[in-house]
Structure prediction request, 736 residues.
Amino acid sequence: MVRPMADAPTTGPEDNTVEAFLEGNRPDENGPQATPSLRHAPGPYFGSYGGRWMPESLIAALDELEDTFEKAKADPDFTAQIADLNKNYSGRPSLLTEAKRFAEHAGGVRIFLKREDLNHTGSHKINNVLGQALLAKRMGKTRVIAETGAGQHGVASATAAALLGLECVVYMGAEDCRRQALNVARMELLGATVIPVTNGSQTLKDAINEALRDWVANVGTTHYLLGTAAGAHPFPAMVRYFHEVIGDEARAQILDQTGRLPDAVCACIGGGSNAIGIFHGFLDDPSVRIYGFEAGGEGVETGRHAATITLGKPGVLHGARSYLMQDDDGQTVESHSISAGLDYPGVGPEHSYLADIGRVSYEPITDSEAMEAFRLLCRTEGIIPAIESAHALAGAIKVGQRLAAEAEAAGDAAAAADKVVIVNLSGRGDKDVATAAEWFNLLDKDSPEHEIAQEGEQL
Amino acid sequence: MSTAENSANATVPGTSKSAAAIDRARAQGRAALIGYLPAGYPSVEDTIAAGIALAENGADLIEIGIPYSDPVMDGQVIQAATTEALAKGFHVSQVFDVVHGITSKTDAAVLVMTYWNPVVRMGVDEFSRRLAEAGGAGLITPDLIPDEAAEWMAASDKYSLDRVFLVAPSSTPERMKRTVDASRGFVYAVSIMGVTGARASVSSAARDVVAAARAAGAERVCVGLGVSNSGHVREIAAYADGVIVGTALVAAIGEGGVDAVASLTKELSTGLTKEEA
Prediction:
């Protein structure tokens, strides 16, 4: 039994207000019992989660970052810079595409895809790296470091560094470097240095450890461009801020296209940055059910998964208190997922809070379920999703079927056709073609691609 | 010595084992020697034997590290040692066997150095109770800052354990004051912005960190990171109350076992006597 941190605010007093809020009591700014908004949570704590479980050596840098970020948010020049880069570099707003043929397999509800796959570099990651790279420039730092698992955040970081003239070093597990040789080449083409990490389990969490060691030693010149909404304050709130554009756009687009709010919003969760970005737009809309889909790997009963909230316990890792996959000794347990982007044993602290108060439901999706949804989207919509995003698609199928069952139980089966579900399609699947081809046995056994795919290469 | 009112200094005599050990060294006109060993490397029995050898050859305080899966403040040598200990099946509760094994045979103050999650997992109060029962002096917490330490402050008071927080070259005067005030036993001054590991020379930043900690009211300040030979020890002993050696001892036990720890400790201790500035 893990005791709650005595020093952090508990969720207790807030439970009733959140419950009332979810029952439809809208915030009344003038009322004496105004319900607090769940939007724009500033940190450092989200309920009892978050904080700064970090070496003292890095606290001054975190303070500097927090101060720079707060001032930048209030500076019209900065927000204009972000808006300009989002529009003219990343290609925002990203589309909201209705997936009619795919929806036939999801209980017949209406399904809309938030197309983060269409952003420059192919995923939502660009939103965060551009924001943080601009902050690095504001702090006068000349070098950024980043961790990466599959290479998506590394590529995005290298991209932002190239655009803004910053030196970029990316830490990547040695095993991942071997499997993702083409993403290593991408980063190097963009001018970044990729350092293989051979410590510990040689996975994403060890890449983060190594990036933190670099940061401690070089903090005067270097900004750590963390890739997800986790880590020490101000990272979770700051990374969310840069991704809020996803939810803001999606909310306006769905109102424009359907005239109403969605019944449900679905996203995949590793560290949880794409999810918190789209969720944020709907947190204060009590009629919208929100779902986060974790990587269930080979099945949560097998132990080989990355379902941190579903099966983890609160602990501290990489600077934040949050749900964590750990053993009885508090040692971090290795996670497993077919999706490298979800293969992380921790999760952002705001998600832990949203799980505890019941505002967001978190459920595991297995590798098999995700790959079936992956194939379905390819064949029904002509869109190859990232395997990460395929977890959200698989979840949306379940949510759609549940909504249809509810409509039928209420005696109005036809009402299912009016239900609306938004899925955050966080990235495109070009990087996953070899993995998928191997999964579906599409490769000739004698082909060089077969050999590469067996090694896990993501083309 | 000043008599500042913060808890690091206002310790009731006899309640801080670390302060008492440092004060004994001070009474002999020298700095204290603090040696670090990771528990379970290469075995729990070896750690106990090496801890006793440390105490018998000149160490005043001993830090026992808990091997952890994600040691962000450690360099290659300590990472390799703790990874090996974990691979051999080390369990956190064995650290109490190590502490008891050393404190039952020596007078050295034995602290546990640990990343915070293993303590959280066991329960801060439970961990503290067992550490006190084993004869431990307290905890050194490399990734716990006073801002997050309310539960540990309460438990360390309840069980009379020292709480050694770290201060760094990057610590502002405000943070330095806050950390010194929260500490008991001594304050751990990080000599350099970086991770553990032997270095050719001791950073000049160390002297400034010690001065800043003293200005913030710290009565006992010990310096660690990058200290590996008697020359380094001599340099630091001139201005600090204690000198912390880690990586060099870990390399010694890895290469030459308990005997190598004994002879390195003897060599290191030759640097402890304070020289006229």
